[in-house]
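task queued by scheduler; priority normal; single chain, no ligands, no partner chains; default sampling; output format set to C-alpha cells
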Amino acid sequence: MPLTYKEIVSSVPESEPYSFTFKVDGKSFTVCWVNRYACVDREWVKVVASEDGCKECTARAFKLVMDEGENGPMFFPSEKNLTPIMNALRGYAELNCEPSSDFQPVMVTLKTYPPTKYTSPHGTRTGEEFHHWTIFPSKVTDPELVDRLKPLWNLLQHSIDERLSKFISRDARASMPIIEECLPEMERPELYASAIKWVINIQEKFPTYFNIVDLTHKEKMKLRIFAMMTGRAGGAVHFDFSSSQNFISLLTMNSKEQVIASLNNRSSVENYQVDSLNRALAKHKVSSPYSVSLLWDGKLYKDDLDLHIVLPDRTRCYWSCKNVGNHKLDFDAGIGGNEAEPVENITCSGRVPVTIQVDNFNKRTSRDVHATVIIREVGYPDEVIPIVWPLRRRKGDYLTIKTHTFHNTGTAAPAMTPKAAAAAKAQSKDFDDLIGTPTSTIATLDKIVGGEVVIVNCKSNTNTQSVTDSFNEMVMNAAPSPKRKKTSLAASCSVNPRTVSDLFTLISKGGEHDLAIHLPDHSPGYITNVCTRTDKALKSGNTITSIPCHYEDKFKPPVKPIKPGTARLDNSWVYPRVDGKANVSGMAFINGKYFLALKGASLSMNSNFPVGGGFYPTDLSATARVHRSRWTYHHTNLRPTIPCPSRAHAPFHPGHLAVGTFITGETATVFLNGKKLVLMVN
C-alpha cells in the first residue's frame, strides 16, 4: 500500500539553511539564508523536471535546484515515485553548484518558498495540500528582523565588504579606540559617537577576523549581517555605515590632534551639507554649471520641504511642474519622511535671474525646521544659505530666500546672436588695443608670477634606480639590523610635518627629500602664464599673469581650484616610477592654494581632459570686462604651449613644469621619504 502524503512529509528531513544567531542587549536574534546559484542550466532542469508531468513541479524546480544550505541542495520528493528524477536534479546541483560558483545569498523567510498548499489561481483546489515537490525549512529568519533587514539586504551582497575589511584589520583595531578617545574634544561628537561604537562593537564580536578576503562565504555573511543588524538604520539607509566612511582616512593619521581637526572640519554644518549634496548629485548623475539645491537633516526633521524657482515671467519650477524654460527639477525628496539626507536640486539655465522659494508641503515636525539652500555656479564658491521654516508657518506661505542672478560666464563661448556678433565686431579694435593676441604657456616653477615656490632637492636614485639596484636594496633592507627603540608619538609629530604648510616650510629649508604622491589620490592641474598686450587688461596689473587650472571632473575643461572633484591623475599626465608613485619636483603657493608639480609631467593628450588655456572672465580688469565672451572663447579653443628649453631654463624643463595637482580638499596624502602622511590643509 503506497504511503500517504502526510506519511511522506513526516519522513522527509527538514532542510537546513545557513543561520546566524546573535545577541543584542541580551536578546537573541536569528537570521537564515541560502545561497542561490546563478549557474543552473534552466533548459536542462526544465527537460528533466517535466518528466514528472506536473507543471507546478516544473516551475518550482528552478528555485529548488538553485538553492543550497548547510546540507546541500534542498528539495524533497512527492507522493509519487519520482526518485530517478529527483536524484538526477540533485546530482546536477551537487556537480555544478560548487561553493566557488557565482551565487547570491537569499534571506529565508516564511515567504521565500512556494506554499505547501495550493493558492489562487488554482480555483477549486485553493487551500488543498500540494502533494508534489516542495521545501520545508527547519527554521526561518525571525519575523521581527525581516522589516529591518530586507531594505538593507543589497548591502550584504558585496558592497559592504571593502568597508568591513578596513575596520577588522589589525591597524584599525588599534586605531579605533584612539579615535573614540578624541570624542570629548570634538565640536560635534554626537555626529560620530554612534558610528564609532558600531565599528568597535563589530571588532569585539569578531576578534579573530583580520581580512574579509580570507573568510568563508558563511563567515562573511555572519559579519555582514551583524554589521547591518546593529547600529542605527532607517529604511534602506544604515546611518552608522554611512558615517563610518569618515574614519577611513583617520586610520593613517599621525596624531589625535589631526583626528580632531579633521572631524571638526567635516562636521561643520556647511561641509556636512555640501557632502550630502555631492552624494545626491552623483547618485542621480546630475551635472550642471548652474543649480539651486535644498537640503535638510532627515533624521531630525521628517517634513516634506519643497524647492521652488520663480522665473521673471512668474512661471514656477517645482515638483508639480518639473520643466520650465530650461530649468529642471532633477529630483524631489521628503515625500515619505523616511530619508536620512533629503536633497532637492533644480538645474538652472543661468540666463535669467531666479527667485528661490521654499514650501513645507507636509509638516511632520512640531518645531522649527532648519534647512540649507546651496547655490552653485562653475568657477565660483558655493553660496550656502541657512534657512528656518517657523513652527507656525503654513503650507503655501512660501519662504522667499532671495533673487539670484548667475554670473553666466562659464568656460564655453555662448552662441552669438546677430546683435551680439555686431557688438563684438564693433569692439574688435578695442580688444586688439587692450589685449592684443593673448597667449597661454605652461609655466615653469621659476616663472610663476605672484606665488611662492620651493624646489624639492630629490634624493639620488629616487626615480632612476635600475631593477638590479632596486633588488639589491631590498636584499640589504632584509638583512637583520639592531633593534631600535620605538619612536614615541610626540617624537613622530616633531619630525613629520602635520600640515601642507609645514611641508612647504620643511622643503624650503633645503636638504634632500623623497617627496611623492600616489596618482589616484589627486586631481590633475597645471599653471599657465597668460600674456596680454597691455597691463590694463587683467586685474593683476601685469602683462603676464600665472593662472591655475584645476580639473574637478573628467570631460570638462579646467576651472579655478576651489573644491575637489572626481577627476584623477593617471599615466597620461606622468609616468609613475617603479613603486607606482610620482615624484614631486616642487611646491607652489598661488591664489591661496598649494600646488605640487610632478617631475616629468606634461599636458595630457587624453580626450578625458579637455585642455583649457586659463582664460577666466573673473581675471579681467573692469576695463576689459566688456570682452569677457571673446576672452572666454580662448579658454577652450587655445591650447597652452610648452616652453622651449634653453640653457637658462634647462634646470626647470621638463622636470619642473608646473603640471601636477592642486590641494583642494581638507587633507592631502603624500609620501615623504617613504612614509605615508595625511596632511591637514590650513
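post-processing summary
- DSSP finds 18 helices and 29 strands in the chain.
- The first strand starts at residue 18 and ends at 24.
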